[in-house]
């Protein structure tokens, strides 16, 4: 679909005032005409979608013809909605006769359009998604139950495809080490979490009503965890925990769009964020809250994700994880629950301690906190920081020694 330029006149002449007056008169007619065109195109689309979706014969050629017909009607349908935005909503906003919903709709339209020059793929998916959402709101407001039931299956199916396309595009950008800078990656990580949360809010909630029986028990449990964050004010630690839950849901719903290597990067990002919380915790209560979430992320990352990893770029990392996994399996055999949890905690602390030691200056406070925890768990000894010399004098030491 080609973009049409939107002209805004800063000074009103006699002719522009006359044009504005005529526009106000013609707006109701245009809205009615565009709405009628959308209805016609939507009807053709749903007919083509049902024909393609319900075709079960082995005739490949006929299947391709039906698919082509479906794609053509979908393109015409989107064009009719796009024309509605350009001809009707834009004019109403310009003339001051728009509703808050229409003003918000046009604002979102501009934001998406600006993506065209820099991120064309994201622009393509997000514009389609935006136009579908706009018409879906109109269908819900119309209270036409029969139309809603016909439209909802197509809507869910198409939105699934578009969200997968958006997330796959982010995955490609994150995997491109040469073109994507560290700052850009941080921005993309945020977009990944925001997009998955947007999907949960806008599409998954519809699925819960329409096809709950087809949703796995595991995903429903994760969704219940996520629902806890919808009420009340969240602090920075709560936000990290919410992101962790969103990531767990995404691994079930978007397995191919967010492959393991990208999910791994997202978990590493969350670990960096929670380490920062440990460093900047102002009191024991906040530190303990952050530490508890750190343990959960370590469990999710090391046990639920890395255990499924097949390809390792560095053989040394693979051997290190094998050693970690063997220790974890031995701990799992411990019958005493408290002892088992303590041993797991020690295992996670030692593993992350090796990582943060790579940047000792940056993670100095984290290293001190980890060592303190290991001393509390009996995995390290805290020696007195002084010793006696041959001359009988005392000198200070700055070290803690492992068992």
Provide a concise account of the structure shown.
The chain has helices at residues 14-53, 60-94, 100-113, 120-142, 145-175, 182-210, 217-227, 236-253, 260-280, 284-305, 315-332, 337-356, 364-376, and strands at 380-381, 386-388, 394-396, 401-402.
Features:
disordered N terminus; two-stranded antiparallel sheet; mainly alpha; two-stranded antiparallel ribbon
Shape: elongated
Q: Label the structural class.
A: mainly alpha
As a whole number of angstroms, the C-alpha radius of gyration is: 29 Å
- Estimate what percentage of residues fall within beta strands: under 5%
Alpha carbon gap, first and last residue? 68 Å
How would you characterize the overall build of this protein?
With 403 residues, this protein is mainly α. The protein folds into three domains: 17-143, no CATH class; 144-311, no CATH class; 326-388, no CATH class. The protein has helices spanning 14-53, 60-94, 100-113, 120-142, 145-175, 182-210, 217-227, 236-253, 260-280, 284-305, 315-332, 337-356, 364-376, and strands spanning 380-381, 386-388, 394-396, 401-402. Strands 1-4 form a two-stranded antiparallel sheet. α11 runs antiparallel to α12 (337-356). The longest helix has 40 residues, at 14-53.
